[in-house]
Amino acid sequence: MPVTKSGKFLLLCCLFLLLTQAACGEQAVLPTLVAPISLPQAVEEAVAINVPATFTPPPPGATIDPRLNFGDNSPLSATMTPSSTPILPSRTPTPTPTYTPTYTPTPTSTPSPTPFGWTGPVPPYLQGDPNRSKLSIHVIFNNDPRIMEFVRQAQPVVIKAVDDFGFLAEVEQVSPYTIIVGRRNWGSQEYVGNPEEEARKFVQAQLRQYQLNPAVDFWEGWNEPDPGPDRMVWFARFEAERVRELARYGFRAAIGGFPTGVPEMNEFAQFLPAIQTAIEHGGILTLHEYSAPVITQGYGSALPGYPFHADRGSLTFRYRWYYEEFLIPNNLVIPLVISEAGIDGVLGDRPGPAGKGWADFQEYAVAQGWGSNGIDAFINQLAWYDNGVRYDDYVLGFTVFTAGPVAQWGPYDIGPVLPRMADYVRNFR
User: Fold this and answer.
1) Which residues, 6 or more positions from 228, have their beta carbon under 8 angstroms from its beta carbon?
2) Closest CA relative to residue 357, chosen from 420, 402, 307
3) Long-range contacts of 24-32, Cβ-Cβ distance < 8 Å, separation of 24 or more
4) β pairing state of 253-258 and 158-162
């Protein structure tokens, strides 16, 4: 029987309740990654503003100011390109944490094990099944027939689309369990004005696109924000209100969208109120994780002021610091999508040759023992990462950057690798 949009909504509700219940119980220790393939033995080492008064939204049923309803005032064009590739910030982290987490979430009622009368079986990937791959793809333009063929063959757990949303209705049709995350490029990302009012303007300006693309399950906001310690409170309020504004129109939010290597731990602590708001409205958290010249660069590195953990990193698997140190202890386990992942040579302070995307580092990866050729080496690195995230129940999946690239994103093109990626994912079913 085909799975309807309402059916997928119910499945996602089950996920939120499962994660909430898991957060309230005893948490198992995250296992150290065990690579499913033969890998190199050596693990490389890496290296408040004055916020305006809180905005009070109008009461339910009130008319929204029509001046905020800008509609589709930034139409799509064939020349648009995604925003900049993640770059580690030049800001030097403080050597020791400057913030002691004291955040206490607002108590919520114990969830029912069968939300909305749902009694059907929960798909394995919503149960944190370590035997199902969480690997999927990020898509800029659906300009390659291998993209939809990947979806048909792999039936991925999640997919990310930027600006080009027309093909997502077909994605939902041929792979009804796939969770769809969407984002529209946005030119202005400035931490100015009242954060709640700015969030409402942001949603209103993109509202028509949301309404025209109901296949999208979660809408991201800004791309790769890096507020730093002085602006994180502003951004947390912005994201919390964006969640609420989307909910007023029946949509759900993917909050965060942070780039590789940020935020620092004391900054993430300031973001917790936005996390709670997203949980209350069925939202998710997204962030990006890249490394270079191979995906293990920085894995095993400790963060400033925190002890070493073999199964975390400063770049890839950085998210485990956030969950282990803040979200799990505070009962704020929110579903996570790593909405961009892979190899990105733009990252600073790294070894290896010059380059940008995975295609530029094939020879280096082969020399490091990842595979006998460049494509094998890349697939094996993705398998290594997948092997780790499969053991974290709160991770829905990760999307490799990128299919359907344009302009400067050529070296990141995963089009030639999509058949191999589909084979890899299918092996887990």
Assistant:
1) 89, 91, 263, 267
2) 402
3) 24/110, 24/331, 27/328, 30/311, 30/320, 30/324, 30/391, 30/392, 31/311, 31/391, 32/310, 32/311
4) unpaired
pTM comes to 0.78
For 147, phi then psi, to 5°, come to -65, -55
Asked whether the beta carbons of 400 and 342 are under 8 A apart, the reply is yes
The 10s digit of each residue's pLDDT in 60-91 is: 444 433 323 222 222 222 222 333 332 222 22
Examine residue 111 and say whether the peptide bond preceding it is cis (omega within 30 degrees of 0): no
Q: Which residues pair with 135 in a beta bridge?
A: 398
CB 219 within 8 A of CB 254: yes
pLDDT, one tens digit per residue, over 159-173 is 999 999 999 999 999
> Any idea what the Cα angle at residue 226 is, between residues 284 and 67, rounded to 5°?
70
Q: State both tokens at 389.
A: 């995230």
So what's the pLDDT on residue 372?
98
Task: Give the C-alpha separation, 385 to 315, whole Å.
Answer: 12
Cis peptide before 402 (omega within 30 of 0): yes
pLDDT higher than threshold 60 for residue 101? no
> In angstroms, rounded to a whole number, what is the distance separating the alpha carbons of residues 199 and 232?
14
Task: Give the C-alpha separation, 284 to 24, whole Å.
Answer: 18
Question: How many residues are given for the chain?
Answer: 429
